[in-house]
Structures are given as C-alpha cells and as structure tokens.
Target: Cytochrome c oxidase subunit 7B, mitochondrial
Amino acid sequence: MFPVARAALNLTARGIQRTAVRQAHRKHEPDFHDKYGNLVLLGGAAVFTVVWGYVLTQAGIEWGLSPVGRITPKEWRE
Model:
C-alpha cells in the first residue's frame, strides 16, 4: 500500500476510534429521529400511498402502455 493511502486510512481509523470512545462515555439523549422517526416514516408512506392511489385511479391519465397499433413495420431498404 502506498504511504499516503496508508496514512490517510490510519487517520480515518483513529478519528473513528476517537468518536466511538467519545460517544460511548456520554449519556444517550433521544433526538428528533428517536422521538418522531417512525411517525414521520409512517406519515410519509401514507401520503405516498394516497397520492399515487389517486393518480392511478382517479386522475384520468391515459398511460398508453401497449404498443399495439402504434408500431408499424417500415419497408426494407437494400
């Protein structure tokens, strides 16, 4: 391994070790994601489902997924 890459990995590993030790010694306080994370996730999933349910069933969009009748063969040129 190149000396520069080895030094970079060593610094990264040392930084991660310091962060892990620092976080292990402090009390864990619930943050926003601990308090409301599941609620926000479920709310987002509900909104996603309702909006796409409306779009797929009520919006009247003609999707045109079938290529039947739209693709016509062209004459072969030699």
The first helix runs from residue 3 to 24. The chain has a mean pLDDT of 78. Residues 30 and 66 are 52 Å apart (CA to CA).
